[in-house]
């Protein structure tokens, strides 16, 4: 082993790498001796400088109380790492109160229980990241080619493979305590939250499905659908510029019926229900988290205290790094974030341009199957383009958010993760929802009117809403994007790491040494990085946004999310246990910033759904017509439907003679007037009185809906306490018990001191 003679490493037998006091602790499997493995390429052994840097780094670890062993295969050099128990004794002394909730005492021996493997790995990983050799950290040495990677070993995961990380265990309850004992509290809390979220999706999915199916009762009986299907003599104004022709209103019969599946009176009830559901979900989750944290004895855990303790263990001369804030850095971050948001909005405008050009292209192709469904084809292909944009911008947003986060120089890794969470989520939110906002609230509202249309660059006419209304566009966009994200994302999330792992194993030669074989097996697994769990959380937050923010337009969103999550739980389990290297276990007593993200999404959902019902759906125009313009304005009549005449009332009239080029429209010689969806006067095409009255009612409805929904959220949040009384009482009882024990010990010491004083006084009197 040339290059390593001066270091206490193991080349042959097990015991050579340990002092004598450790020999008896080595009777387990060879792999059980080592917590961590460093990997370097064998090619570095021919480079004196890199060998020297390896020696310096390992020597620094040895001075801190680490043992290591070197193993080689034909391509790699593996360094098994294990820390001396004195490091963990110091960790226990600094952080664990022998009389507090963080410690356990074995009744038979009256000694503290052994440090768990998760804590060993966490402490060791922290020291490895903070150790420097010649001023270079391990990450710097990786960039220089001195080392290739590092990872904790998978040990004792067989039980999780059997009970959790299998597809056929999809309907089985998760072994949360085993997950915590193997991956740490942070990963376990993620699966607790994901499991609870999935359970809570069941009532939301059932109600959404019921709302959707209830629309089938209106499929044939809806008065509006009947009028549209019977409107053979009403012609709609042409939408596009190419191949323009008049279309009968009755041709949209099928889409009119489909629209009423999700755009009916029960949509309002469902939107309010989802606002209440989001609040109840969060409040009950807080209660669930409190129970879990109490069960794990983490109520007294403090993140800053652990970070400082680890810093002192790594370097006794560590000087406290204080919180800092720079207005200049914050201004730069704010400016770049706003620039990225503007860029994201610009990408939404690019999608608008695509849809306009696609509409012109599809109209000019004159294909028989596209002739009647140009708008549907544009919406479908636009959703596909939007999905591809999301995939690309996710990578860009992650890189930008990381750069901005590091530029701010956070004090700790946990603080860096929190800042990264906020920045990345904001960018991702605009990437995912900017196009939906355009479709819901802008599409078809800035187009002018027939004969005087707004045009892009003076050439192409802006796209219109679907002939059956803008809700159909929003429904299709939501269905396609969410369907693609739930199916393609899950497929890629599983197949990519599975194929990568199989490919790496294909060319690997299995060594004879069982220990080296185990290290190589861990090395061949897919690599992880500090934000691996973050990606899983972010994926669920975006899904939660789709499930709540525009749920009024897509009541099947909770059902899709439910099916996706049932797969996601086992998919993540299989990835973490079978396909990826072991995540570094981290302690946590909540899901951190993600809770604030969920609360923000809940508020945005109330606002967005209120605006969708008011401005995108036909709910407000129908209600206003029923009680102001329809046959029931002076009272209901059993012999007539209150919406009779609504279709004719909601369509404005345009005279074909006012077209700039009426001869270019097919069939214009037989049609003197056409209809379009708007509220304009027939003589001057300006907005009518009905438009302004409807606008006032829409705005009033948005204000009323949001206040009612937010009040319901506040009442629900007040009615359901964040922490169960049983948890509060258990914490009180523990505090009271510890105080009584301290008082009892104090009395015993006082009594002992008094007895000793009395005995001493008696002895002196006897001597006298």
Describe how the helices and strands are arranged.
Elements: E1 9-10, E2 36-41, H1 48-63, E3 66-72, E4 76-83, H2 85-95, E5 105-106, E6 111-112, H3 117-130, H4 138-143, E7 149-152, H5 158-163, H6 176-183, H7 185-214, H8 218-221, H9 223-229, E8 235-236, E9 247-248, H10 253-259, H11 266-295, H12 303-314, H13 327-365, H14 368-371, H15 374-407, H16 413-441, E10 448-449, E11 452-453, E12 455-456, E13 460-461, H17 470-506, H18 514-524, H19 532-548, H20 557-579, H21 593-616, H22 619-629, H23 646-650, E14 651-655, E15 673-677, H24 689-719, H25 725-767
Parallel strand pairs: 1-3
Antiparallel strand pairs: 2-4, 2-7, 3-4, 5-6, 8-9, 10-11, 12-13, 14-15
Helix pairs in contact: 2-12, 3-12, 6-7, 7-11, 7-20, 9-10, 11-21, 11-24, 13-15, 13-16, 15-16, 15-17, 16-19, 16-21, 17-20, 19-20, 19-21, 21-24
């Amino acid at each position: 082993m040339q290059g390593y003679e001066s270091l206490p490493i193991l080349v042959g037998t097990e015991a050579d790498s340990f002092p004598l006091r450790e020999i008896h602790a080595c009777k387990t499997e060879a792999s059980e001796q080592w917590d961590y493995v460093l990997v370097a390429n064998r090619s570095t052994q021919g480079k004196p400088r890199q060998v020297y840097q390896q020696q310096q780094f390992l020597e620094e670890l040895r001075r801190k109380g680490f043992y290591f062993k070197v193993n080689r295969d034909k391509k790699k050099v593996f360094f098994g790492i294990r820390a001396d128990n004195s490091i963990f004794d110091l960790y226990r002394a600094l952080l664990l109160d022998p009389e507090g909730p963080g410690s356990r005492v074995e009744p038979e021996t009256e000694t503290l229980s052994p440090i768990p493997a998760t804590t060993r790995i966490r402490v060791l990983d922290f020291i490895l990241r903070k150790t420097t050799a010649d001023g270079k950290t391990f990450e710097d040495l990786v960039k220089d080619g001195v080392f290739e990677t590092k990872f904790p070993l998978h040990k004792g995961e067989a039980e999780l493979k059997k009970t959790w990380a299998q597809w056929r265990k999809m309907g089985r309850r998760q072994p949360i305590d085993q997950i915590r004992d193997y991956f740490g509290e942070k990963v376990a809390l993620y699966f607790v939250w994901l499991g609870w979220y999935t359970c809570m999706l069941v009532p939301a999915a059932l109600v959404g499905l019921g709302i959707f199916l209830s629309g089938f009762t209106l499929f044939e009986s809806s008065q509006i659908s009947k009028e549209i299907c019977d409107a053979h003599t009403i012609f709609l104004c042409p939408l596009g510029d190419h191949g323009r022709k008049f279309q009968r209103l009755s041709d949209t019969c099928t889409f009119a019926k489909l629209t009423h599946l999700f755009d009916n009176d029960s949509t309002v009830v469902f939107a309010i229900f989802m606002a209440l559901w989001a609040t109840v979900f969060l409040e009950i989750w807080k209660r669930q988290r409190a129970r879990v944290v109490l069960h794990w004895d983490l109520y007294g855990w403090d993140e800053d205290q652990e970070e400082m303790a680890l810093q002192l263990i790594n370097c006794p001369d560590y000087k406290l790094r204080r919180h800092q804030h720079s207005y200049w850095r914050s201004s730069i971050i704010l400016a770049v974030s706003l620039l990225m948001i503007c860029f994201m909005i610009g990408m939404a405008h690019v999608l608008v341009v695509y849809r306009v050009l696609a509409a012109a292209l599809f109209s000019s192709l004159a294909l028989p199957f596209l002739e009647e469904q140009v708008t549907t084809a544009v919406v479908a292909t636009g959703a596909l383009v939007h999905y591809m944009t999301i995939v690309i911008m996710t990578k860009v947003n992650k890189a930008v958010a990381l750069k901005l986060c590091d530029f701010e120089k956070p004090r700790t890794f946990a603080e860096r993760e929190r800042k990264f969470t906020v920045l990345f989520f904001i960018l991702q939110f605009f990437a995912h929802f900017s196009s939906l906002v355009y479709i819901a609230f802008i599409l078809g509202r800035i187009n002018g009117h027939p004969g005087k249309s707004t045009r892009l660059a003076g050439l192409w006419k802006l796209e219109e809403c679907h002939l059956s209304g803008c809700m159909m566009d929003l429904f299709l966009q939501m269905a396609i994007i969410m369907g693609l994200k739930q199916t393609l994302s899950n497929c890629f999330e599983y197949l990519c790491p599975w194929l990568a792992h199989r490919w790496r194993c294909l060319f690997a030669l299995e060594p004879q040494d069982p220990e080296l074989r185990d290290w190589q097996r861990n090395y061949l697994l897919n690599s992880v990085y500090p934000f691996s769990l973050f990606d899983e959380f972010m994926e669920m937050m975006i899904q939660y946004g789709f499930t709540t923010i525009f749920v009024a337009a897509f009541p099947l969103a909770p059902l899709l999310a439910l099916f996706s999550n049932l797969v996601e739980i086992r998919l993540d389990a299989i990835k973490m246990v079978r396909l990826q290297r072991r995540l570094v276990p981290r302690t946590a007593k909540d899901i951190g910033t993600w809770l604030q993200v969920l609360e923000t999404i809940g508020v945005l959902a109330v606002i967005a759904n209120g605006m969708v019902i008011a401005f995108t759906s036909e709910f407000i125009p129908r209600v206003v017509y029923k009680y102001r313009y329809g046959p029931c304005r002076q009272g209901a009549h059993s012999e007539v439907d209150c919406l009779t005449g609504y279709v004719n009332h909601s369509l404005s009239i345009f005279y074909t003679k006012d077209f700039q080029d009426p001869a270019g429209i097919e069939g214009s010689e037989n049609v003197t007037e056409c209809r379009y969806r708007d509220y304009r006067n027939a003589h001057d095409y300006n907005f009518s009185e009905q438009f302004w009255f409807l606008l006032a009612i829409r705005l009033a409805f948005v204000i009323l809906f949001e206040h009612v929904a937010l009040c319901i959220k506040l009442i629900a949040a007040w009615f359901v306490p964040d922490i169960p009384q049983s948890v509060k009482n258990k914490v009180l009882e523990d505090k009271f018990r510890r105080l009584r024990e301290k008082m009892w010990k104090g009395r015993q010491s006082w009594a002992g001191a008094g007895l000793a004083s009395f005995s001493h006084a008696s002895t002196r009197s006897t001597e006298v």
